[in-house]
Amino acid sequence: MKVYRVTEKKWTEYVAEILKEFKVFAPVKKENSTDFEEITVEKIGSIYYEGTTPSTPLKAFFFPVKENVVATEQKQARVILGVSNCDLAALDLLDNIYLGGDFMDHCYKENRDHTIIFGKDCDDLKETCHCTSYGLTPYCEKNCDISMSVSDGYCYLSPLSEKGETFLGQFKINDNEVFDCLPEKVIQKRTAMAANLQSQNINIPDEKASRKGIEKENKELWKRHASTCVSCGACSMICPTCHCFLLIDLKDFEKVKNWDACQFAGFSRVAAGEDPLMKLYDRLKFRYLCKFVYKPDMFNALACTGCGRCIDACIGKINKNEVIVEACGQG
Amino acid sequence: MQELNIYKPIRAKLIKIIDESPLIKTFVLVPEVEFSFKTGQFIEVTVENVGEAPFTPSSSPLETKQLEITVMKAGYVTDAMHKMEVGQYMGIRGPYGRGYPLEAFYDKEVLIVGGGCGFAPIRSLLYNLKAISDKLRKVTLCYGSKTPGDCIYKPYITELRETPKFEVYRSVDKTDESWQEKVGVVTVLLDEIEIDVANSVTVVCGPPIMMKFATKKLLEMGYPEDKIYLSMEKNMSCGVGKCGHCAMGHYFVCKDGPVFTYDQIKNSPNIWM
Ligand SMILES: Cc1cc2nc3c(=O)[nH]c(=O)nc-3n(C[C@H](O)[C@H](O)[C@H](O)COP(=O)(O)OP(=O)(O)OC[C@H]3O[C@@H](n4cnc5c(N)ncnc54)[C@H](O)[C@@H]3O)c2cc1C
Ligand code: SF4
Ligand code: SF4
Ligand code: SF4
Ligand code: FES
User: Fold this and answer.
1) How far out from the chain centre does Cα B201 lie?
2) What single string gives the DSSP state of each residue in A77-114?
3) What average pLDDT score do residues A242-255 get?
4) Is residue A196 predicted with pLDDT exceeding 60?
5) Which residues pair with A68 in a beta bridge?
6) Chain A: nearest CA to B137, how far in angstroms?
7) What is the C-alpha to C-alpha distance for residues A69 and A73, in angstroms, rounded to an integer?
8) What are the pLDDT digits (tens) for A31-57?
9) pLDDT in tens, B41-64
C-alpha cells in the first residue's frame, strides 16, 4: 500500500486546486448533525472530517431522489470527500443491483463513473453506529478511490483504485512524502475506534443471528413494533442500501426515477387491489427480511451496514436493533 | 448487457383496436424498431404522460412485424389505454423476464389452465405450441370466465377447436341461455378431461385466487411440483430487476419470472397474496 503524507494546511490548498476542475462535496457541520454540501473555496475550512455519518446517504449521489432517466444530461466530474465505511459498504449491494444482471442502469453507471470517492476514518461515533456488528470496520479498505486518514496535523492519503492513483497524479499529490504503510498512530486510532464500537454494541446480534431471529413468525412482536410506525418511509430513504424506486411518466416518453419505499402503502398493490404488503406489520417485517434474508441471498452483499440512520430517523421511535434483539430472543 | 438506456421506450403505432369484451381490448402495435419476444416474456407499455404497466403480448412470438397486447381495464394506465385511438403511439420496453421453457414440453401433453385476462399470455403460448405441435403429444386448454360475455378471443377458440392435437374446454361462473358449455369455476373442467398426468406438464395463468385453487387441484391430480408452470403477477415499475417493486421472497418476479414452477416459489411468502 502507498501512503502519501500531506500537511492539513497543504491539503486545503489541494482542495482549492481540485475545485478548479471538479465539483466537490464534503460533510459540513450543522446544528445537530453533519451533512454533505457542495464545497466552494470559502467553505473549504468548514469541511468536517471528524464527524460520523452525514444525514444524507452516499447513494443519493448515484441514485438521486429524482432523476430523468430518458432525457440525457451531461454529468459533471465530481469529488466526494469524507465518506464513511458504512456508506461505502453499501456500494457492494447497489453496484450488484444496478450494474449487474442482464440489464445495466446507465444513469447509475454514469454517476458512478463521474465520481472520485475519498473514504475516511471515523474519529467519532454516535450512539446508533454499529458497523462492526456486521463485520465492517470504521475505516475503509475498499469501495473508494482514495482513503484518507487525518492525524496530528497531517492527512494520509492512500490510493485504493486506479482511478484514485491517477487522480493523485493529476494534482501532483503523489509528489509528497510516501510511505508503505500508515503510521502506528493512525492504526492505533483505528483499532481503538473499532473496539469502542464493539463494546458499545455488545448486545447486537451479527447478521447471521439477526437473520434467524427475523425469519421466525413472531407476529405479535411485529404487530407491536409496527403500532407506532406512520409509514413515512424515512427509514428507507436515509438507508444507504435501500434501492427502491418508481418510474413516473412525463411527455415525450420521458421518465423520472423517484425514490420509493416498501414502507409506503400501495408499494406492492396490483391492479385488482390485492396487496401482499397491505398490513403495516407485514411491511415492517418485510423491510427486515429484505435486509437480512433476501438481499444477502440474492446479491451476496450486506443490505444493512450498521450506519444507524434508520434508528435516528424513525418518528415512531422504532429501534431496528431493539427489534432484532427481541426477535432473536423470542420463540 | 442490452440497450444503452433500459428505461427509454421505443415508439409503437397503434394500428388496430379489437373489442374483446366490455372491459377487455386487444391493441395491435407496430414498433418503429424491430422487436421480438419469447412466449411468456412481458413488455412494459407506456402511455405518454400517464404511466407504464407490464403486459404479456398475446400475439405469436413468431410474428415480428407487429405485436398485440390484450388489456383489461383495471386502473389508471389501463383506463388511459382504453381511451386511445388508432394512429396514436404507445411506448414499449422489453422483452423482459423468463418465458415458458418450450423444450421442457417436448414429447409431452400440455395442459393449460387459465382464467380471466390470463388468456393473453396463454394465446401467445398456444400460437407457439401450434407451430411446434409435431413435437408435442396433445394440448388441452381449460379456460374459465365469469360470464359468457367475458369470454374473449371467440374466433380464435373456434379455430383452435378445429386444430389437430388441440382440445378446448370452457366454463363460466354465471351462465345465461346462450351458453352451451360447462358451468362452474375452472377447476370443474379438470374433472372432465382425459390426460396422461405422468407424461404431461401444466401451465396456469389467471387471477391469483384461480391460480391458487388450480394449483391445489393439479397437485391432487398428481402433477409434480416442478411440472406446474405459474405466471405470477406482481406490482412492477422498472421490469429489469432494479426498482424492488416486484419482490417476492428471494425473487424479483420481473427478472427471475414471471414464469416459475410451483416448486421454485412454494415457500415464498404471499404467492397468492
Ligand atoms: C408480468 C405481467 C403481465 C401482465 N400481463 C397482462 C396482460 O396481458 N393483460 C392485462 O390486462 N393485464 C396484464 N397484467 C396486469 C397489468 O399490468 C395491470 O392490470 C396494470 O398494471 C394495471 O395498471 P393500472 O395503472 O391500470 O392500474 P392501477 O390499479 O391504477 O395501478 C396499478 C399499480 O400502479 C400504481 N399506480 C397507479 N397510478 C399510478 C401513477 N400515476 N403513477 C405511478 N404508479 C401508479 C398503483 O399504485 C398500483 O400499484 C400483467 C401484469 C404482470 C406483472
Ligand atoms: S421511519 Fe419509522 S415510522 Fe417511518 S416508515 Fe420507517 S419504521 Fe415507520
Ligand atoms: S437498515 Fe438502518 S442501520 Fe442498516 S444500513 Fe439501513 S439505515 Fe443503516
Ligand atoms: S424493499 Fe424496502 S427495505 Fe428493501 S431495499 Fe426496498 S425500500 Fe429498502
Ligand atoms: S419491476 Fe422493478 S425490480 Fe421487478
Assistant:
1) 16
2) PEEEEEE-HHHHHHHHHHHHHHHSSS---HHHHHHHHT
3) 97
4) yes
5) A256
6) 34
7) 9
8) 888 999 999 999 999 999 988 899 999
9) 999 999 999 999 999 999 999 999
Does the predicted model carry a pTM greater than 0.90? Answer: yes
Q: Are the beta carbons of B252 and A298 separated by less than 8 Å?
A: yes
Residue A326 in this model has a pLDDT that exceeds 90? yes
**Other residues' Cβ atoms within 10 Å of the Cβ of residue B198:** 11
Torsion of CA A7, A152, A33, A238, to 10 degrees: 80
Eight-state DSSP code of residue B8: P
Please write the tens of the pLDDT for every residue from B104-151: 999 999 999 999 878 999 999 999 999 999 999 999 999 999 988 888
Task: Specify the pLDDT at position A294.
Answer: 97
Q: What percent of chain A has pLDDT over 70?
A: 99
> Nearest to residue A68, comparing CAs of A248, A260, A236?
A248
Which ranges of A229-319 does DSSP label H, i.e. alpha helix? 234-237, 280-289, 295-299, 309-313
Give DSSP secondary structure letters for B121-167.
HHHHHHHHHHHTGGG-SEEEEEEEESSGGG---HHHHHHHHTSTTEE
Asked whether the predicted pLDDT for residue B1 surpasses 60, the reply is: no
Residues listed for chain B = 273
Query: How many interchain CB pairs under 8 A, A with B?
Result: 118
The values of phi and psi at residue B135, to 5°, are: -95, -5
Can you name the residues that pair with A117 across neighbouring β-strands?
A80
pLDDT in tens, B194-251: 999 999 999 999 998 899 999 999 999 999 999 999 999 999 999 999 999 999 999 9
- 3-class secondary structure per residue, A146-185: EEEEEECCEEEEEECCHHHHHHHHHCCHHHCEEECCCCHH
Does position A94 have pLDDT exceeding 60, yes or no?
A: yes
**Which grid cell sits at B170?**
370452457
**With an 8 Å Cβ cutoff, are B245 and A269 in contact?**
no
Window 224-243 of A, Cβ < 8 Å to B: 243
pLDDT at A30: 87
Rounded distance from Cα B180 to ligand 3 centre (Å): 60
Q: What is the DSSP letter of A291?
A: I
Reported residue count of chain A is 331
Instruction: Return the best residue to mutate from B236, B248, B250, B256 for the ligand 5 pocket (most ligand atoms within 8 A of CB).
Output: B236
In the structure, how many helices (H) and strands (E) does chain A have? 13, 11
Q: How far is the CA of A220 from the centre of ligand 3 (A)?
A: 23
Q: Which helix (H) or strand (E) holds A207?
A: helix A207-215
Do the beta carbons of residue A26 and residue A58 sit within 8 Å? no
Q: Counting atoms of ligand 5 from 1, which one is nearest the CA of B54?
A: 1
The CA distance from B17 to B85, in Å, is: 8
Residue type, B121: P
**Using CA atoms in the order B54, A261, B246, A285, what is the torsion angle rounded to 10 degrees?**
-150
How close does chain B come to A190, measured CA to CA in Å? 35
Residue type, A187: I
Which residue, B6, B112, B9, B128, is CA-closest to B61?
A: B128
Asked if pLDDT for residue B272 goes beyond 60, the answer is yes
Beta partners for residue B69, in sequence order: B27
Of A66, A78, A29, A23, give the one whose Cα is nearest residue A49: A29
